[in-house]
Amino acid sequence: MTPVRLDATIKRLRKRLAESPPRIDELLERLERRLGSEREAPLSWITATCGNAVRLISVDDVLFFRASDKYVRVVTAEDEATVRMSLKELGERLDAERFWRIHRSVIVAAPSVHRIERDELGRWHVRLCEHDELLPVSESARSLFRGM
User: What is the pTM of this model?
Assistant: First the structure.
C-alpha cells in the first residue's frame, strides 16, 4: 500500500468514527416495513385439476392436503382434486393458524379435526369431522394436539 492510499484510508476511517452509528431500532423498523410489503397474503383459492377439468377451490372448503408420489391431493367434504404445487410450497402460502403440517405428507385444516386416535402400535392418527380417511401424525407434530 502506498503512503497516499494509506493516508486516504486513515482519513476515511477517522471520518466514519466521528459520525454517530445508525440507530438499530430505525434500521429494524425499515427492514420490517420492507419485508412486510414483500410478504404474500395467505392463499384464498387453490387451482386444482379433477380429471380434465380445472377447478378453483376455496381454502375454506379444504379438509386436508396429502402428498403422494409427485402429486398433492386436496380433499374437501364433497370432492377431491390434484394440486400442481408441492406440499412445502403450499405450507408456506397457507394461513398457519388454520392449516397445520401434521406429517411430512399431510397438511390438515385444524377446524376439520374431530379427534386424535392411537393405534395398537402407538402411532397417532387424526380423525376428521367430515371425512373417513385417517391421517398420520408425526412425533414432532403431536405437540399441536396436546391441548385437545
Answer: 0.71
What residues make up the domain containing 109? Answer: 45-145
Predicted confidence pLDDT, tens digits, the chain (148 residues): 789 999 999 999 898 888 877 788 887 888 777 776 555 678 899 999 988 899 999 999 999 999 988 889 999 999 999 998 899 999 989 998 999 999 999 999 999 999 999 889 989 999 999 888 999 999 888 888 776 6
CA separation (Å) from 95 to 71, 81, 131?
A: 21, 20, 21
Q: Is residue 22 part of a domain?
A: no
CA 30 to chain centre: 24
Separation between Cα atoms, residue 133 and residue 39, nearest integer Å: 34
CATH number at residue 119: 2.40.50.1020
